[in-house]
Amino acid sequence: MTPDDREQLLKQVEQLQHELAEARLKMSELEHKTSTSTSADVGDISVTISEFEDTLRRLVQRTAMIVQAEKCVVMVRDREAGCLVARTPAFGLSEEEVKAYRVIEGEGGSDTVYQSGEPLVFASAQAANELDRLKVRNGISVPLLVEKRDDNNMLMERITVGVLNCFNKRYGGEFNDEDIRLLERLSRSAAAVIANAQMFQEVVAEKEKLVQTLESLTAGLLLINQKNRVVQMNAHARQMFVEGGVDPLNRPFTDVIQHEECKSILQRMIQDSVNPLPTSLPPEENKKPDEIRVYDSDGREFIYQMHAATVRDDANNLLGTVIIFNDVTELRNLEQMKTNFVSIVAHELRTPLTPMKGFIRTLLDDVNEEWYLLEDRREFYTIIDENIDRLSRLINDLLNISRIERLGAQGLEMTWEQVELHEVADSVVTMQRGRTDRHTLVVDFSPEHIIIETDKDMIQNVLHNIISNSIKYAPGGGEIRILARIEPANAEHPESVVIGVKDQGMGMTEPFLKRIGEKFNRGDGRTKSGGTGIGLWLVKNIVLAHHGAMWAESPGIDQGTTFWVRLPVVHREDDNDAPVTMQKD
Questions:
Q1: Can you give the pLDDT at residue 142?
Q2: Do the beta carbons of residue 453 and residue 481 sit within 8 Å?
Q3: What pLDDT, on the 0 to 100 scale, is given for residue 28?
Q4: Nearest-CA neighbor of 441 among 355, 504, 496?
Q5: In 3D, which of 236, 242, 195 has the Cα closest to residue 218?
């Protein structure tokens, strides 16, 4: 090599070092940007990765030119595979060759350089397999070392992040010690860029994991910056507030969220985060968390509890406010159900106890049995007996609810017997007629007498709950018709009886028809019917215990509703594992 050639190469090395210094500065800026970026910056991250790829491409090209090599490639450690792998971009190697270029631990000159931290000029005997795989005649490899120093520039740690390989010296030459010195000089800068790039990509990967974690949260999450713009909004929060696939990011939260109560609470929460109360003030111990009610596209109500916290960087600078929306719908329903349930159970217990107490007191007062005829006494005893049955049914319902909660529908204790449905329906209708004077109850069976294997008390429970529901949601009165028919066996179900209760009440919309049988479902709010919302839930589980089906039909608002139940005519013990359908096909 002539002095002129050497001077020219040194100039090129200096130029490349200058570019690498700029690249390191760029990587440092990108690391800071990534640590403080949000999901809105993912596009920028893609651009920065592309810029890094361009920098590495220029690096390998100029390195190959400086040492007069036909091929140049960087290899890094694959932690999962436990070997060195080539990475793109490379010079003089196709993408397929780069993907296939791997050196396992203990084999090949590249691994020797990586493990020892010392450069190596490949001789055929030292790395024959590696050279043969690449179809090259000679090569040179230097380690990519990153040095960590303290404030006094004392070496603390030296880490090998990979190797830099060049192959096939041009013009038939051989690589020598001068080539090693040139590559070592380049490798120091190249190692820093590779290390920064790996760290940057790890940060990006961690960021993507964080974004995916936030997206998978069952709670809604909203992050608002100091300019009151949305910088993060996970899937659950978008489902709550965003319609039509509109991108909420970088928009003012007042434009994204149309829920007026929520906007008002958010504005107060943000203001509180910017201007927190003095620490000397006592906390408001009895202050309740903010709650909002949100309705989905099907009209279902959800209750969310809102919690806010400030987000700050390492320097304690305020970045924004994060708000978490916790779904407390079931908790609030449980609380309401508890209140209603205690009230209703107390009332239901008192209802049969009152006449029982009255008639027993009357009988006891007639010490000599002179005041009442035998027929009167038998009537008193009959009333007492009926109310005992009513009290027994209520207690059984409470026990059944407990069993279902613990064991599911199969936890219900069933006494299977042959039951004549018309007799059961007549008995239920007689009792229900005594509870309303505005409705006409009609039993309409075809055929009139239908025998089914079931639990008599359970089927009475089913009819009582459905008929009571029809009375409740038909406040204007009208006819309530109890229907029954036989359905022959087919591919979907065995021979069954289909029982229907058709009213002329308020009707139901499609979204609420889909919710029939849900626990705590108390209608759409058009009537203050009270109740715990567990009547039809209990019916559903009784039907499940029969391996039957339950559904409802309604033409629309104010056009009445028909509740349907399908039950197998014959109960079979091997039905315990049969699939159950809760909606009509």
A1: 92
A2: no
A3: 52
A4: 504
A5: 236
Q: Buried b vs exposed e over 544-571: b needs ≥16 C-beta within 10 Å?
A: bbbbbbbbbebeeeeebbbbbbbbbbeb
pLDDT, tens digit (0-9, with 9 covering 90-100), for 82-119: 899 998 889 999 999 999 999 988 788 899 899 998 99
Q: CA 109, CA 103: separation in Å to the nearest integer?
A: 9
Query: Are the beta carbons of 483 and 500 closer than 8 angstroms?
Result: yes
Per-residue burial over 126-136, b if 16 or more Cβ lie within 10 Å, else e, is ebeebbeebeb
Element (H, E) at 103: strand 102-104
Write down the pTM of the prediction. 0.49
pLDDT at 8: 58
Q: In whole angstroms, what is the distance from residue 342 CA to residue 1 CA?
A: 99
Per DSSP, the three-state class of 361 is helix
Cβ-based neighbours of 518, under 8 Å, separated by 6 or more:
533, 537
| Burial letters 315-329, b for 16+ CB under 10 A, else e | eeeeebbbbbbbbbb
Domain boundaries for CATH 1.10.287.130 within the chain: 332-407
Contact 183, 137 (CB under 8 A): no
Give the chain's end-to-end CA distance (angstroms, integer).
87
For residue 205, the number of C-alpha atoms closer than 13 Å in the C-beta half-sphere is 6
Q: Where in the chain is the domain with CATH 3.30.450.20?
A: 218-275+288-327
Numbered ranges of CATH 3.30.450.40 in the chain: 3-214
Long-range contacts of 414-417 (CB under 8 A, 24+ apart): 414/455, 414/458, 414/545, 415/455, 415/456, 415/457, 416/453, 416/454, 416/455, 416/571, 417/453, 417/454, 417/455, 417/456
Task: Please check whether residue 169 is in contact with residue 69, taking contact to mean a CB–CB distance below 8 angstroms.
Answer: yes
Residue 312 CA to residue 494 CA, distance in Å, equals: 64
Half-sphere exposure of 57 (CA within 13 A, CB side): 7
**CATH annotation of 3-214:** 3.30.450.40
Judged by phi (left if over 0) then psi (alpha if -120 to 50, else beta), residue 172 lies in: left
d(CA 92, CA 52): 19
Reading the block at residue 404, the tokens are 């279902």
Looking at the chain, how many residues does it have? 585
Q: Return the DSSP state at 252.
A: B
Residue ranges for the chain with pLDDT beneath 50: 20, 27, 30-47, 281, 285, 526, 530, 575-585
CATH number for region 409-577: 3.30.565.10
As a whole number of Å, the CA-based R_g of the chain is 40
Look up the CATH superfamily of 218-275+288-327: PAS domain (3.30.450.20)
CA distance 27 to 163: 20
Instruction: Identify residue 50 by its one-letter amino acid code.
Output: S
C-alpha span between 501 and 479 (Å, rounded): 10
Under CATH, which number does the domain 332-407 receive?
1.10.287.130
Cβ neighbours around 362 below 10 Å, total: 14
Q: State the DSSP string of 105-173.
A: TTSSHHHHHHHH---EEE-TTTSHHHHHHHT-S-EEEEEEEEEEE-TT--EEEEEEEEEEEEEEEGGG-
Helix/strand/coil percent split, the chain, to 5 = 45, 25, 30
Looking up tokens 């027993």, which residue turns up?
Answer: 360
